[in-house]
Design goal:
alpha+beta; five-stranded antiparallel β-sheet; 15 helices; phosphoprotein; kinase
Amino acid sequence: MRRRISLPLKLFFIVFAFVLSCIILISQLSYRYVQKEIRTTDIYYTNQILDKVDQYFTVNFSSFQTILFSVETSVKANIDNTEVIKKQLRELYELNSNYVSNIYLIKSDLSILGGSTPTRIFDEPLSEREPLFEAADKNRRTTFVSDPYKSKYSGWTVTMVRYLNGAPFPMAIAVDLDLNAIEETLFKINKKEQMNLALITASGKIIAGFSENKGPLNIQDHTFSIGETSAEQILDTTETSLQLHTKDGIPVSLLKKPTEKFNWTIISINDESRLKAALSRLETYYIELLAAGLLLSLLISFFIAKYIRNPLYALKTKMKRVEQGFLTTTISINRNDEFGDLSRAFDRMLQQIVELIQRAELHNELERKLEIQVLQSQINPHFLYNTLGSISNVIRLGQIEKVDVVIESLISILEYGIADASEKVSLRQELQNVSDYIAIQNIRYNRHFHLIENIEEGLLDFPVFRMLLQPLVENSIFHGYNGGGIEGPITIHGYREGGIVIIEVVDQGEGIPTDKIKHILISEPSDVEVKRKRIGLNNIHGRIRLHYGEQFGLQIISIPKEITRVRALFPAG
């Protein structure tokens, strides 16, 4: 047999589990909240960095534009003096060599006048300059920015080119950007901020950045992809924040921001290393918190279990003595709490049990007599006699069509009446029985007792005593309508009022004198000793009170010559 666990021990485990669960839950929620805040802050911080980088390129763009305008002004002023132009190109280049790889003029034959040392020597025409010159010629009022390409003298570069308007022969001014300097700047930011930044063209090529990254990216021929997502797909989406996975399944967060001046996009890829580093610092704190929560749970559980164990064992001892038959047992628990109240209530309950045992025998005897009276009165010989007489009358009067109605109704009433009187039925069944009863009475007295049913929704299945309504309707016919001497409506109401269900039979007949109402529901000795022809209202009243308590039963309200209401009150639950 499995050993039973005592209640204090169960309570100990329950309180322990509850307190510990609360601490774990609060810790987890706090951890998740902090994680969310760190992630939000990280995204905000990354966006701030992207804004700063964009500002850096905006300033550089303005500087490059200034260089172009300076060269344009100088060339126009010295268009006939090539040596002066070369000197000024060399000086501008040397002044801005930290940012540019070359400053030069492209002639229509694709030869150049260069500012850097190699291009001052090697100025021969190159085919790589053809798209630059054509772009400048087509956009004479604006500055054209090329895609990154491999230049013979400037290496991996991007060229800003502008057509020289007003010159006597076609010519364009060009500046090759030093992408190595830009990339070095991005690498410094990556290292300092633990970020992974890159500058991407509209076609998805990498201008600078990502070179030091060895994790989520696949860099080849200055293009990249993250997992199954290509650079073009990343740039095509309108979302500025993306959650992607590398081919190894590593989750990464991607933020992108288009630059203001260039047709480029700044991209930041974060593998959550910074987030993990920040969260790892919190792990020790949460481990200590859980350890403290475990200890606190043990202490609280122990004291609560101890506080409940002593009075509980005292009550258990008292109940065992009662179980052995000692109903006068008294074991006092002197506590001003629920256990003290429970002990005193238990003592009062024992006193009431002794009284209830004495009263139970009387109630059982009364119930037995009432049930016998109901059984004896279910089939009313007088009613059966009058019904058969009604059949004889309708046959004699040639109203053959009414015979079937009377017989069918009589059969239904007999089948309904001979069932177990103690068995409860639905209100729906009682109403059907009353309907059959009224049909016979209408034919018997050649009257029209109109039956009206007004039942609240949901009460048709409410359980009631068998043969509850027929005596109430019979009372309306015999006393309200003078035993069929007059006719009128009989209304049956069913409704809830508070916690009580009220079933009410109303007639508009002669009514009941006020001085007789209080005697109707009181059983007289002759009512039990004499065989009655009908089930009396006091019988119904007694059965309801016996089953549900003295606050329930029948109520009679009558105004002579106007209306009579007989209400049956039941508990709603």
